[in-house]
């Protein structure tokens, strides 16, 4: 670059600054107008992403019929992929297309992924294999779309600020993060409602719940393109990542071959000076120092991202009359920025970005300590499955009088069992084999009856005893003791009458055969004072089930009294008795940790990166989230711990990692990439001026020589 070119660029920059100042005065804000489009784009994109994720775990469980562990594994695998792909997006942006075009092209991929995902949730489109294939393909496209634009949007927003507006840029990242959580807040409220309250194709409307986020992603793309004329765009710098890798490889190779210590090369990267510029080497040193600092950070994200998996599943086993979500972020960001941080500064406590992040880790660890205490109380209403070689058994007495039940070799039911009494709990029946036929003795009115039943290990059963003319008859049915994954109650009917009947509870219809049991199905939590009945007679009038509560499993026995059906409600699995409000402390703590850790880390990654590597370092920051999800996958799939022990393990690991991070942060030296630009720009201009002077001096000498030759 010549001195003239430098002066020209300076004039252009000055003109742009004057235009920005005029725009700020007209708009009454210190921020560039282009920021509005970027923030709205981020709001819509995050609505799209979190709206889809809000129902993703339940989609796996209830629509694809996967178990809890597989659903958790796929959820975190998807989340991990979303945070591995930012490296690809950063490479494309910094090396090839630039941030603006990268955001547009990958947003189109993002939209296509949402559409494919929505189509996969339509029951009439193919069979279950087609649904799984479309869902997984859609999720892969979404992961590449959201991950690819993720490092570009934040860095592109930072690019809109000039060097002298660093404080406004720092506040922009808080506003940017608030837009993320505003989108998350609305979407996590709206999309579950669209799924559960809107019925389509005969069930929960997952197609609509995924379709609305797809529409919001289209809006995000349109809004971003609408602001294209206002953006300040930094052109791509060539394949910077490849150049960085080559420089590191060259330095390592040179250092390996030279066994002697060179006092002029205090850093191993200095060995690349033979081939690469000092500026590039200095920039790589800056980036590597930050990346090394990021090594412990995935553990924070391993805890944080369990809000969408393990904490959601914990909530389904609680009384869900109250829900809590990203609203806390919208409250905490201004509280921290306007109150807490100024108070800490007033107390003359130097709270650096890295110290904020360390405190955020501590809050996250405390959140999981609180989650452990909640989990210990939640599991009290859970029926533990029978271990190998044993099964669970309860008895329903439909004989009009007390009966005694005896299983030879066991003393499970020492007291007589009353008529139509809700069994207090399941009893554990030893089998000492994978399956076994047992003889059951029943005594009623001093008359004994016997029946043989086949039991299998690790299952739960209800033994139903009927009275007939021939004596007592036994009926053994298998029970489902797991709490429903969406938190709603499970219900089944036992019909003691000779005619079959269809009963409608809310949106669910049960076919109850004569003298038999209906299927076990999930119904919405609520009061059911008047159940629909297919029999056009007085038998079905005023059929009141009362409250069917969260997390319970009910068996309703239908008997006839005075010419009417009378329901007798038995609670096989106890209803959730821990209110979801007990999750508030853990959400408050994790949100405080997020504000101090995530927002600070986002701005730290931008401020510590050279101009040509800002997207790359943003991608490095996002990679810590990806590795956090990998940690969850390893622990969830490999450890096999009880949930409360798993929570406690994560809390302990994060506290240990926090200590390591704090030690590393103590030795970190903050840098100013803009100052580096000035130093090398001044050096470049000085060299160019010297070159111009030398060139002019050479031309003068040549002219003098030529003049002297003419005289001769």
UniProtKB/TrEMBL annotation:
CDD domains tied to this protein: MFS_SLC15A2
PROSITE patterns the UniProt entry points to: PTR2_1 (PS01022), PTR2_2 (PS01023)
GO terms classed as biological process: dipeptide import across plasma membrane; innate immune response; protein transport
Annotated TM spans: 47-66, 72-92, 104-126, 132-153, 174-194, 206-231, 286-304, 324-346, 358-379, 616-635, 647-668
UniProt topology in membrane: Multi-pass membrane protein
Signal peptide limits: none
Pfam families for this protein: PTR2 (PF00854)
Biased composition annotated in UniProt, kind: Basic and acidic residues: 692-703
Alphabetically ordered keywords of this record: Cell membrane, Cytoplasmic vesicle, Glycoprotein, Immunity, Innate immunity, Membrane, Peptide transport, Phosphoprotein, Protein transport, Symport, Transmembrane, Transmembrane helix, Transport
GO cellular component terms, semicolon-separated: apical plasma membrane; phagocytic vesicle membrane
Compartment annotation: Apical cell membrane; Cell membrane; Cytoplasmic vesicle, Phagosome membrane; Membrane
GO molecular function annotations of the record: dipeptide transmembrane transporter activity; symporter activity
Catalytic activity from the UniProt record: carnosine(out) + 2 H(+)(out) = carnosine(in) + 2 H(+)(in); glycyl-L-leucine(out) + 2 H(+)(out) = glycyl-L-leucine(in) + 2 H(+)(in); glycyl-L-lysine(out) + 2 H(+)(out) = glycyl-L-lysine(in) + 2 H(+)(in); L-alanyl-L-alanine(out) + 2 H(+)(out) = L-alanyl-L-alanine(in) + 2 H(+)(in)
Region described as Disordered: 684-712
Entry function: Proton-coupled amino-acid transporter that transports oligopeptides of 2 to 4 amino acids with a preference for dipeptides. Transports neutral and anionic dipeptides with a proton to peptide stoichiometry of 2:1 or 3:1. In kidney, involved in the absorption of circulating di- and tripeptides from the glomerular filtrate. Can also transport beta-lactam antibiotics, such as the aminocephalosporin cefadroxil, and other antiviral and anticancer drugs. Transports the dipeptide-like aminopeptidase inhibitor bestatin. Also able to transport carnosine.
Family: Belongs to the major facilitator superfamily. Proton-dependent oligopeptide transporter (POT/PTR) (TC 2.A.17) family.
Protein name: Solute carrier family 15 member 2
Organism name: Channa argus
